[in-house]
Amino acid sequence: xxxxxxxxxxxxxxxxxxxxxxxxxxxxxxxxxxxxxxxxxxxxxxxxxxxxxxxxxxxxxxxxxxxxxxxxxxxxxxxxxxxxxxxxxxxxxxxxxxxxxx
Length: 102
What we know:
signal
C-alpha cells in the first residue's frame, strides 16, 4: 500500500504539465483578418492570394523601381510618400479584398 501511495505521489509530482489545460486564445479583431493595410508589402507578396489582390488592385506595384526600398513597409505607411499615386479609394479596395482572404 505504501508503494502505491508513493508511486501516485511521485507521478503527480513529476508530471504536473500533463494535467494542465489551456484554452485557445479568443478571436479578436486583430486575428479576424489574415492581412490588412498594416501588413508589410513583402508579406503580402509572399502569399499567393494576397499577391493576386495587389496585382489586381495595384498593378505594377511589385515591379516598381523602388520596390526593394518600400517592400518592408505597409501600404498605409507608403501612401503618404506616394505623391498621391496611392489613393484612399485604392487602399479601401485593397483592404476589402485582403479581408476576404481566408
